[in-house]
Amino acid sequence: MKLLNNNGKVNEVILITPSGVSLKEVKIENIIVTDLNGVQLEGGGVPSSELHMHLEIYREREDVMAIVHTHSPYATGFSFSNEKVPRLEGFGEIKEPYIKEVEYAPPGSGELVQLVSNGLKNDDVMILKNHGVVAVGPGLDEAVLLAEFTESCAKTGFISGVLNK
Ligand SMILES: [Zn+2]
Hints:
By secondary structure, the protein is an alpha+beta fold. The protein is built from four helices and eight strands.
């Protein structure tokens, strides 16, 4: 997540969760502060292995203030299949029937950084093939909601897929 200073201007620093700490266990003192080049300014741990993906999205999309990356089970299950996650109502008008998916690139790789930041130029959520979900928003609450909604679309899609077999 990017920070605002007292004038409401965006500070050139981001907050990111550490690698190797369960999200349930993350406390304020585990959060890492870096500049937009990834130079660590505060926090004792090692930043998430997807730090460069987050930084590139922030550089490409000035409107994005928060990024949520999950391996939530239903959406990630879809990413390991040939089925696409249906884009259900709640995303507003349904222009495309499915949530976009970017092709596979290894986690933490430069290739994944490029695929995801290109994909997010005109969308706020992506499924990463064989990996998980990235959702962005103008604030942390919006990005979390979008990630949760994506998981709920995947769950509904899974159930309707089973029932319609
Ligand atoms: Zn991941």
